[in-house]
Amino acid sequence: MHEYDVVIVGGGLVGGALACALAPTGLRIALVEAVAPETMRQPSYDERVIALSLGSQRILQGIGLWPRIAAEAEPIRRVHVSDRGHCGFTRLDHAELGVEALGQVAPARVMGHAIRTRLATLDTLTTLCPARLCNHRLEGDRVTLDLHCQGRDLQLGTRLLVAADGGDSAIRARLGLGTRGHAYGQDAIITTVTADHASPGTAYERFTESGPLALLPMTEGRYSVVWTCREDETAELLALSDADFIALLQARFGHRLGRLERPSARQAYPLRLALTREPVQQRVVLIGNAAHTLHPVAGQGFNLGLRDVAALAEVLAEPAGRADPGGPETLAAYRRWRGGDQLVTGLVTDLLARVFVNPLRPVLGLRAAAMLGIDLLPGARQRVARRFMGLEGTQPRLACGLPLRTSHV
Fold first, then answer.
1. In what pathway does it function (predicted)?
2. Which of 80, 257, 326, 360 has the fewest Cβ atoms within 10 Å of its own Cβ atom?
3. What is the CATH number of domain 2-74+101-181+275-358+390-400?
């Protein structure tokens, strides 16, 4: 039996970021990951990127990861939101909000490498990989975990189990936790294109009859495309030639960036909303996609998970959290901090995904008026921007770019 204060199951970006964030607390941490990490890949034209809000950038700064990411990130200084075929639009600008950027677009490759590099330096961390969680059970004031790791069976004991094992969380299923939500009947098609009149620092979200179409700025005039389409359109869009796909994309998006060209290989992912009803259990916490899977509209999914990381790290750095990381006082503090944000963000993204594919004429008129109203009213514009920048509500220290209070450890 190996004893730990916190065991994190899932060593992806969210689970890895939490392990990095907890390093200053002095807690004994184990990180369990089923898949061996890839070695550092070379940059590629079509690499996957993640849209980071300003709040997420500050969290990564507070953890000490941002300096390793910044050089290959592209800032988002302006956001242009429009409704295809209708007059509604909204524009957000960093200068009006007094910030250097509204957010960043960073390669997942670079973020993963920054996390792995940091984890390799942590004396209080044990990494078990590749390792599979076979079972876990609550036994008094601890959770016992049965693992299969590199051909042998292990048993761990921990005072807090953190499930960061993704949208199909095995821990959530084992606990029998229900989710609220639904499938959207939509897929997200991901690709990369180049624009001959690129607008560096500007992100675009264009609502179409089949769902939102986002173009996120990357380096070298590239854009990451997230095209939401109906499930019955997906196979056809994937089968199109590059020329036909670009022509259809150009027709949907318009010519704000001039000619779009050089589409990379396309991938499709089904979209759904799933909010875990009780993500905080006795000595167990679900974070990231294990707790909430969102529609990609407005790019809130990963950012919501990083806010989970910041809040959990903050409560575990407090005296009560260090004394008993899985104690009722600690978990109640985390629940109070995160419950509202998780629910509101899930409902807001769901509302946007539904309203902007509704063809009814009264809805079309209302959403056009709402978008124009936000664009014309500075107060409304700033409130919307702060919500999607992850700056609403009480902020953990990490969300302000500050390290945890650990001088008394």
1. Cofactor biosynthesis; ubiquinone biosynthesis
2. 360
3. 3.50.50.60
